[in-house]
């Protein structure tokens, strides 16, 4: 059973027949919301809205450990994350879909491991390839099957938020080799790896990153909202097609 973590603009799957909702407690506290179990094109799926169903939990306060733990406990066999991002590279315009293959973590102060103290022996996971290649290719195939297109690969910069970046910060991320920037990729990806859950993400570029647009007035949230709404229709079509690939 695939798990889908929906980000901004995707707090529910309109094409998902929900069979039951389950409030799960974990040793790490409460997940962002109840898990929604159902079917997408007749395949079992569990859905979780990363920021809560009313979009009230900011990126730095998401209980990533509880979310991943709850999905594992629910017997998910893989996680597809949907995340809105800013485009750093010039060709990553709003509306572009991207399936990243690398990540750099700029977050701080987040609970980022299940292995800390107590009776749990320390474990160091291999994280050379942070995203699962098989699941990444399944996502790419589903995007193609939906008649859509996406950038295959790219480096995701995970920033702390909730504020957007300065232009100089984006310049630095670009020098670091980052292509897109978002606030939730980490520690989510690493926690999934710790629990041996294959993890891949579909990034939806909703704005040019700070200082990257020709507009002199910074980033407009009305514009983001519009792109989000349009793009999530496409993302839903992609998720619907996942069971065919
Ligand atoms: N920066 C960080 N996170 C984001 C952005 C951005 O420009 N757009 C959407 N999520």
From TrEMBL:
Listed A to Z, the keywords are: Glycosyltransferase, Purine salvage, Transferase
This protein's species is Thauera aminoaromatica S2
Report what the protein is called: Probable 6-oxopurine nucleoside phosphorylase
Q: Which reaction does it catalyse?
A: a purine D-ribonucleoside + phosphate = a purine nucleobase + alpha-D-ribose 1-phosphate
Per UniProt, where does phosphate bind?
A: 8, 50-51, 184
Which biological processes are named by the entry's GO terms?
Answer: L-methionine salvage from methylthioadenosine; purine ribonucleoside salvage
Q: Which CDD domains match?
A: MTAP_SsMTAPII_like_MTIP
Domain Nucleoside phosphorylase as annotated: residue spans = 2-240
EC assignment: 2.4.2.1
Instruction: Please give the family membership noted in the entry.
Output: Belongs to the PNP/MTAP phosphorylase family. MTAP subfamily.
Q: Keyword Glycosyltransferase, does the record have it?
A: yes
Q: What does this protein do?
A: Purine nucleoside phosphorylase which is highly specific for 6-oxopurine nucleosides. Cleaves guanosine or inosine to respective bases and sugar-1-phosphate molecules. Involved in purine salvage.
How would you summarize the oligomeric state and partners of this protein?
Answer: Homohexamer. Dimer of a homotrimer.
Q: Give me the residues that bind substrate, please.
A: 183, 207-209
Q: Which GO terms describe its molecular function?
A: S-methyl-5-thioadenosine phosphorylase activity
Marked site (Important for substrate specificity) residue numbers: 165, 221
Show the GO cellular component annotation of the record. Answer: cytosol
């Amino acid at each position: 059973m695939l798990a889908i973590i929906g980000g901004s603009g995707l707090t529910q799957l309109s094409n998902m027949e929900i069979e039951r909702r389950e409030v799960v407690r974990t040793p790490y506290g409460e997940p962002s919301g109840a898990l929604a179990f159902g079917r997408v094109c007749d395949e079992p799926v569990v859905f979780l809205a990363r920021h809560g169903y009313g979009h009230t939990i900011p990126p730095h306060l998401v209980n990533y450990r509880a979310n991943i733990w709850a999905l594992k406990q629910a017997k998910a066999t893989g996680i597809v994350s949907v995340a809105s991002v800013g485009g750093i590279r010039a060709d990553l315009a709003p509306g572009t879909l991207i399936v990243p293959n690398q990540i750099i973590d700029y977050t701080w102060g987040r609970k980022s491991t299940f292995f800390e103290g107590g009776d749990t022996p320390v474990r160091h996971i291999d994280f050379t390839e942070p995203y699962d290649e098989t699941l990444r290719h399944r996502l790419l195939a589903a995007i193609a099957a939906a008649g859509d297109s996406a950038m295959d690969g790219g480096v995701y910069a995970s920033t702390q938020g909730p504020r957007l970046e300065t232009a100089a910060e984006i310049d630095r991320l670009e020098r670091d080799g980052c292509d897109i920037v978002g606030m939730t990729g980490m520690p989510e990806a690493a926690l999934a790896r710790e629990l041996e859950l294959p993890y891949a993400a579909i990034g939806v570029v909703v704005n040019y990153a700070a200082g990257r647009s020709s507009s002199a007035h910074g980033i407009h949230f009305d514009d983001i909202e519009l792109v989000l709404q349009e793009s999530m229709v496409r993302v839903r079509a992609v998720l619907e097609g996942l069971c065919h690939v």
